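Propose amino acids for all 100 sites.
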């Protein structure tokens, strides 16, 4: 249960970080492309220039937290499967041989 909560929290953090980075880049791209704007790189376009100027740290952190969150989430289900398999094996052994 603890791994599930940690995994979901990290996935939520990843989504919030990634979306806030994209929102900030879209707001900043309006400044770059405006009439009195600062200009932008033609190779990357307006939005690509805004993403590069905001920095790759928030996107990198969101990708890392997303991957770690998925790992915790998968691990919690793997532990759950082991528990269910053990429980099922013990409960069927408790009944003994049904042929008697």
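Proposal:
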């Amino acid at each position: 249960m603890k791994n599930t909560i940690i995994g979901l929290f990290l996935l939520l953090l990843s989504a919030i970080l990634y979306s806030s980075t994209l929102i900030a880049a879209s707001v900043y791209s309006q400044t770059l492309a405006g009439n009195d704007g600062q200009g932008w790189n033609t190779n990357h376009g307006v939005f690509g220039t805004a993403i590069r100027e905001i920095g790759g740290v928030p996107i990198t952190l969101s990708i890392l937290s997303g991957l770690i969150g998925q790992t915790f989430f998968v691990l919690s289900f793997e532990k759950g499967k082991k528990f269910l398999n053990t429980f099922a094996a013990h409960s069927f052994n408790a009944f003994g041989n049904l042929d008697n």
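The mean pLDDT is 81. The two ends are 40 Å apart (CA to CA).
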